[in-house]
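Re-run with default settings, no changes from the original entry. Doing this only to confirm the output is reproducible before filing.
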Amino acid sequence: MTHPLKPDDPGHFGEYVVAGRLGEGERAAVYLAHDPAGRPVAVKVLPRGDEEARERLSRELPAVREVASFCTARVLGASLDGPRPYVVSEYVDGQSLAERVRGGGPLHGGDLERVFVGTATALAAIHAAGVAHRDFRPGNVLLAPDGPRVVGFGIVWQPAAGTLTGDATGTPAYLAPEQVQGHEASPASDVFAWGATMLFAATGHSPFDAETVPVVVGRILNHDPDLTPLPPRLRDVVAGALAKDPGSRPSARQILLSLIESTAATPSPILDAARAALTPEPGDVPGASRTGDVTGTTGAHRAGEAAGVAGVSRTGEAGNPAGGIGAAGPAGGSRTGSRSRGWLIGAAVAGALVAASGLVVWLNPLGSDDAGGQAAPGATSPPARQVPASPGATAGAGTGQTGEPLVTDDFERAVPEGFGEAGSGGAWAVGSPQGTYAVKGGSARITLPAPGTGGSAHLPAVREQRTDLAFTFSTDKTVNGWLFVTAVGRKVAGAGAYSAHLTLNPEGDVGLQLMRTDLKNTETRITPWRKIPGLTSRSPIRVRVQVTGTGPTTLRAKVWQAGTPEPDWQAATTDTTAGLQATGIPGVGTYLSRKTVNAPVTLILDDLVITRPA
């Protein structure tokens, strides 16, 4: 809605002629103006005398210009030299989410889903450009005819905690806990604000709003909002976004993938478009698929790379970790600025845009490596059922492997090619070329010679219906890219495999999910991707997967820092997919992302134990 100009409002900003006011915040205003051709634009004017905002805008403007515009308002120009800096952006004709909810009540059904997916897509695009929004709220979500648009990013006054005074209405009620404590805004702060905004869309009120700012701050820091008004399939993603600890929140891309998966049975053109953009292109199957070996080192790794905690998700930069998985040498390593991704945005948009019902969904800012593995079209596999952890077990408890020992392999031998014999487990069967596998120095090694390569090793003599597999792994260097490690609990000849997949990103984060693989190397997530808090890929890691029973098969998995107490199961489910309800063999797989720049990388395996659980 356009409001009349005030007497002291300027008549123009450079070549843009002012026509009215679109909105006004505590220290900034947004005007409707027209360019020399008569086209409408929005002009946001920064606060007077705010040199910090001016400096930040100058620093981030190149990245802001590169943000994909299909779910945002494209930045057209800016002036930073005058007494009041301003930014000119595309004019979006539509009510704000705040106006829509105030006038028409909470959103429901497809209207709510469109706002969830469209805004998560916009945040993913903003973060991929290396900037944080800093002021995500209902007033900055515009409901345009072609779908939700997020506006106002990168050009907002950032108050310190001690300056939050006055009326609580507006932005303060959507600040993250770390912001009200005086810390700088980040992509993780945007995710928190997104969660609060989505709850507003579904309920009609802010989850943290109150009559005074001190009460608002207290609620942000200590209050867990009621999520029951949300549809059940949307509650988990909002709960994750509203985590008080920024490190525990998912990234915007993780949110988007979760939304698509949680609505797998929902008929919606919007969601169908998003799902389509996650399907791997025919023939684009890296790693072990080239040997015809079903190891779980294919599509899910690209899916994990898309779902994992990207370099920009916490810091706004794409960077290298301080150390590899158990990498020797001092911590450190260069960081690549966010601008290194800038040119990728246009290329990714060209390859991953899908239009449906007026909303264009952009999912893969890093290219085809990030296409997610989905079930094949027409697949009829029943949905997995989530099951609890072992009765009586508590988080952090050392459960340990029990049951009849089947294999213990400490790799205390020398094998120049392959893995040799695993004692009672018989001979290891490894992938090709065999020269990339070796046993030396008390450990087994799989060398990944180039980006986009994978490897696998199995024990064909261990053909069981019940297996409990655990091993420790590390790498020979800091991995400047994504590494994926798979613990294969059951590989069934002529059918597929059940596996635990670990996603290790360049920031040192580790994620876990359970996967089902078919003969075509199409992989289906049967538990959501989950970042494991407190776990780092910069030290050796131990993983354990247990696969038991048939019709249904029960799967459980956990991962922890080697040498620390074993936790309880972190992922658990059951599955009844036909063909996999049979005996199978265990194994190990790995895959190196195509974006890795310091190959070769060697995965080091040790202390492998397999038992037959009771």
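The chain has twelve helices and 30 strands. The first strand starts at residue 12 and ends at 13.
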